[in-house]
Every structure is written in C-alpha cells, then in structure tokens.
C-alpha cells in the first residue's frame, strides 16, 4: 500500500460528500418549482376567486405574487449556482488533485470522474440550458410582472403613493432577478 493512499481516500470522500450535497441541492431546487406553482395557485385563488366581470375578489392579494417570485426565485438561483459551483470545483480542482496523485497511471484528467464532463458535452446541452433559462424567467420573473399588470387592471396603483411605490419596488426587484438568472445560467459545454 502506498503511503499516499490516505490522501486519495480523502479526495474520494470529498467527492462523495460534494456529490451528496449537490444531489440534495438539486432536489431542493427542483422542488422549489412545485412549491412556487402551488403558491401561485393559492394566491390567484384568493385574489381572483369568484371574479365577477372586471372585479376581483381581492386584487391586493396579487401583490403577494411578486414577493413569492422573488423569494423563491432567489432561493432557486442560489441553489442552482451552488450546484454549478460544486460541479466546477469537481471538474477543475478535485480531478486535478486526483490526477496529480495518480501520476503516470492516469495521464488524462478527462478519464478521471468522466461523468462530470460527459453529461456537459452532449450536443443539445446549450439548447436545453437556454430553454431552462427561459422557463426560470417565466416562472420567477414574468409571472410576478404579470401579477403586477393584472393588479393594475383591477386597481389603479397610482391612486395611492404607497401602492405605487410597492409596485415599483417589486418591478425593479423582479427585473434584477431576471438579470441574475441570465447572468448565472451555465450554458457552457465541456469542462
């Protein structure tokens, strides 16, 4: 047994821990979509339930949707970024450590933990990631903006400065979230 064998075991344990965290974050991130859609249904039911003509039951409830979009969208984005960061660390740092440790036995770092590169190299990845970015924008940004537009169709937000200010803040924060979603979208292929 080599004297460096414990170091390799540490690297492999680190890999296992990182993959465990990544898997948990993927589950949490993906469930946020279902939670978001469920909350939208509840709030829309509260706001628009028994809508009569152009009168909503409780149009002010629509002002909750942008906050739901912001809080859950930001949480989704942070988890997605951590998932990406874990993958980046594995592909760029951990693979190099393991490769260096193995020395001449494995001259190609691409063959070490190959799945970490393989799933990022398919020819449809960029198209799929672009579509996912669009879905994220619709789910977390466009839906919040649609709630603001719908609210302004029922109640003129400009009649009261506090409501107008709240709507303006919500709109600006939603636009900021939209920019961050585009900024953090990992559409790159390969390493």
What can you see in these coordinates?
With 191 residues, the chain is mainly α. The chain has one domain (5-184). It has 5 helices and no strands. Helix 2 runs parallel beside helix 5 (161-184). The radius of gyration is 23 Å and the shape is elongated. The two termini are 32 Å apart. The model has no long low-confidence stretch (mean pLDDT 86).
Structural class: mainly alpha
Report the average pLDDT across residues: 86
- The number of domains: 1
Shape: elongated
Number of E-state strands: 0
H/E topology pattern: HHHHH
The total of helices stands at 5
Query: How many strands, which pairing sense, and closed or not: the largest β-sheet?
Result: none
Approximate strand percentage? under 5%
Enumerate the spans where pLDDT stays under 50 for 5 or more consecutive residues: none
Cα distance spanning the termini: 32 Å
Q: Specify Rg, calculated over alpha carbons.
A: 23 Å
Secondary structure: helix percent: over 70%
Helix and strand topology:
Layout: H1 5-48, H2 64-102, H3 115-118, H4 125-154, H5 161-184
Helix pairs in contact: 1-2, 2-4, 2-5, 4-5
Summary of the model, kept short:
This protein has five helices and no strands. With 191 residues, the protein is mostly helical.
What attributes characterize this protein structure?
191 residues
């Amino acid at each position: 047994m080599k004297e460096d064998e414990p170091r390799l075991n540490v690297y492999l344990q680190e890999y296992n821990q990182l993959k465990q965290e990544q898997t948990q974050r993927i589950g949490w991130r993906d469930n946020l979509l279902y939670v978001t859609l469920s909350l939208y249904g509840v709030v829309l039911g509260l706001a628009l339930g028994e809508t009569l003509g152009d009168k909503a039951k409780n149009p002010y409830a629509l002002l909750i949707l942008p906050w739901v979009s912001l809080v859950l969208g930001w949480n989704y984005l942070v988890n997605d970024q951590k998932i990406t960061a874990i993958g980046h660390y594995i592909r760029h740092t951990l693979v190099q450590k393991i490769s260096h440790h193995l020395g001449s036995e494995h001259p190609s770092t691409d063959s070490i933990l190959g799945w970490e590169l393989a799933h990022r190299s398919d020819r449809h990845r960029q198209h799929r990631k672009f579509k996912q970015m669009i879905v994220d924008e619709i789910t977390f940004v466009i839906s919040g903006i649609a709630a603001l537009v719908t609210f302004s169709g029922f109640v003129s937000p400009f009649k009261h400065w506090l409501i107008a200010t709240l709507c303006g803040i919500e709109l600006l924060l939603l636009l900021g979230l939209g920019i961050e979603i585009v900024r953090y979208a990992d559409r790159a292929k390969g390493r």
